[in-house]
Amino acid sequence: MAQVGWEERRANMVEVCTVCHTGPYVANSYEPYDGVIELYNSKFANPGLAFMKLLKENGLITEVQFDEDVEWTWWEIWHDQSTPGTPAISVPKRGPSARQLRRNSRIATATTDRILEIRCITATGDLG
Ligand code: HEC
Is residue 125 within 8 Å of 119, Cβ to Cβ? Predict the structure, then answer.
């Protein structure tokens, strides 16, 4: 499969959109997508990555993947929850949909669970 970076993919897609829409219209259409990605990264992805790194660096989890519960929780946050929001905001007529709000709330719950797990691990040294 060709290795194409996201910038190039996006530029290609924008080119398609501008066949029918004006440049500013297309740019405005992409704003909510960028916003939701930024929100996800700042609230969940970046702190989550930092937590996982901390656990690994301090020997609180093993090098083996998915042998601790916390790794499954992290998988749920970055793999399962990072994508469903995009189709939700792809329905412009509906605006920020209930689905997108539910998704954010699911991630927040999973993140809280994970923080509790991490507290337990650090407090007891129990690898779960
Ligand atoms: C083949 C022409 C064509 C292309 C290519 C195209 N659009 Fe459209 N788009 C339309 C038409 C026609 C409408 C109006 C449809 C309607 O109102 O029912 C529309 C509507 C929209 C709307 C408004 C939808 C709404 O619910 O009000 C947005 C936002 C939009 N397009 C974004 C994009 C983006 C982003 C791309 C590129 C990924 C794109 N369009 C590519 C023709 C196109």
Answer: no
Q: What predicted TM-score, i.e. pTM, was given to this entire model?
A: 0.64
- Please tell me the distance between residue 35's alpha carbon and the centre of ligand 1 in angstroms: 19
Distance 8 CA to ligand 1 centre (A): 21
Secondary structure (DSSP) of 24-37? HHHHHHHHHHHHHH
Angle between helices 23-40 and 6-20 (to 10 degrees): 140
Ligand 1 site, residue 125, Cβ cutoff 6 A? no
Q: Give the model confidence (pLDDT) of 35-93 as tens digits.
A: 878 888 888 888 888 988 998 999 989 999 999 888 888 887 777 666 655 555 555 44
Residue 125 to residues 28, 55, 62, 68, 89: CA-CA distances in angstroms?
Answer: 49, 11, 12, 12, 41
Residue 40 CA to ligand 1 centre (angstroms): 25
The residue ranking higher by pLDDT, 124 or 62, is: 62
Decide: 26 in ligand 1 pocket, CB within 6 A: yes
